[in-house]
Design brief:
- The chain contains 12 helices and 13 strands.
- With 382 residues, the protein is of the alpha/beta class.
- Strand 7 and strand 8 form a beta hairpin.
- Helix 8 crosses helix 9 and helix 10 packs across helix 11.
- The radius of gyration is 25 Å and the shape is globular.
- Its main location: membrane.
- Pfam families: Spore_GerAC (PF05504), Spore_GerAC_N (PF25198).
Length: 382
């Protein structure tokens, strides 16, 4: 569907500023005549069709979701339509709502899990790569249940698409994955690589990040999910997260807060046999400790907690690797990419059937934990 281009809109406004005081602006487009898309949701519908939900920003509100007036009001409107593809659906929306569609401010695309399981993702998002308005930095999500429900909020003056984007980009926890953009998804699909995107779940207008959706490179379809705990293991493998906490294996809560995390996937090839070692180095602090007696100023106690956290990290990584290799049967951690970089010739011979080979590849872990800060509570014996 042809829409108002980003270039036409922005240049038109510039021309208008320069000319409106003199003769008027021939290319002027009233803001009330443009539907600014904040986000989109795509769901499976009956008879093989899809339902698209476009979230428009209501012009009377500010871009950050704050009302420009003194009264609270809904900051968005969701426009829904059904069809066989996104192009005809876009035209159908013009029959029910005035104004052209402008997608340069679109922050997110959410795909329902039912649709993602049965439809090739490359076909499903083809329009987004061809549309000159929609940016490659738009974030991609998969929803648990209906994608349209993630674009709802009971809070006034909140634009759900913007809020989801802001939470995802902050990446404040090891239990959320690094944001995945449209352009990154395109790269994965063109190389037939398996990959993950953040999953969303919604209940009563409250949407949260909830694990990750796993796509198989060959089919480009959703094949399963990582729980939040498994996402934590994935982040420890990739090193993509820089903050979060890990509970020590103690009866009373003891939490280690990550302040630095470096991970490396090292491929080894011996007599044609492939193996990997995941090396993890992390430093952090004791954020909370309910265990008594425990004096972290004593070196023996400190080493004991470090050893415990190390074992918990190893356990978390092992659990996620088991999910990848034995349950899902795909490399969603970038192991193949490291093999490609370090051993390009070997990679050329295995890449066509890499997911299948990955299932039986030996993987070991080496974890080093350093507690560099344990707060002001404790005492040191003289």
């Amino acid at each position: 569907m042809k829409k108002t281009s980003r270039k036409t809109f922005t240049l038109g406004m510039v021309f208008c500023i320069n000319a409106i005081l003199l003769t008027g602006c021939w290319s002027y487009i009233s803001i009330e005549d443009v539907n600014f898309v904040a986000g989109a949701a795509i769901d499976a519908e009956k008879e093989g069709k899809i339902r698209s939900t476009l979230q428009y920003i209501i012009p009377q509100t500010g871009g950050g979701g704050q009302s420009m007036g003194s009264t609270t009001q809904q900051a968005y409107i969701n426009v829904k339509e059904t069809g066989e593809a996104l192009e005809p659906i876009g035209w159908e929306t013009t029959l029910k709502r005035e104004g052209s569609i402008f997608g340069a401010h679109e922050k997110i695309v959410v795909i329902g899990d039912k649709l993602a399981r049965k439809t090739n993702l490359e076909q499903l998002v083809d329009l987004y790569y061809r549309d000159i308005d929609i940016r490659g930095s738009t974030l991609v999500f998969v929803s648990k249940g209906k994608a349209s429900s993630t674009l709802e909020s009971k809070e006034p003056n909140v634009i759900p698409s913007f809020r989801i984007s802001e939470i995802a980009n902050q990446q404040l926890s090891t239990r959320m994955i690094k944001p995945t953009t449209l352009i990154q998804v395109l790269g994965y699909m063109e190389s037939d690589s398996s990959f993950v995107v953040q999953r969303l779940s919604s209940e009563n207008g409250d949407t949260q990040l909830d694990g990750a959706a796993v796509f198989k490179g060959k089919t480009k379809k959703l094949i399963g999910f990582f729980t939040k705990k498994e996402v934590e293991g994935l982040n420890l493998i990739t090193g993509d997260s820089k903050s979060g906490s890990i509970r020590a294996k103690t009866k009373q809560p003891v939490y280690y807060q990550i302040e630095g995390l470096k991970s490396k996937i090292i491929p080894h090839v011996k007599s044609g046999q492939i193996s990997f070692q995941v090396q993890v180095n992390t430093d952090g602090r004791i954020a909370e400790d309910w265990k008594t007696p425990l004096n972290l100023f004593e070196n023996s106690d400190l080493k004991k907690v470090e050893k415990d956290i190390q074992q918990q990290i190893e356990k978390s990584i092992s659990h996620t690797l088991d999910k990848m290799q034995n349950d899902l049967g795909v490399d969603a951690g970038g192991f193949g990419n490291q093999l490609r970089i370090q051993h390009p010739r070997l990679w050329e011979s295995v890449k066509k059937d890499w997911d299948s080979q990955f299932r039986t590849v030996p993987i070991t872990t080496k974890v080093e934990v350093k507690i560099s800060d344990y707060g002001m509570i404790g005492e040191k014996k003289g």
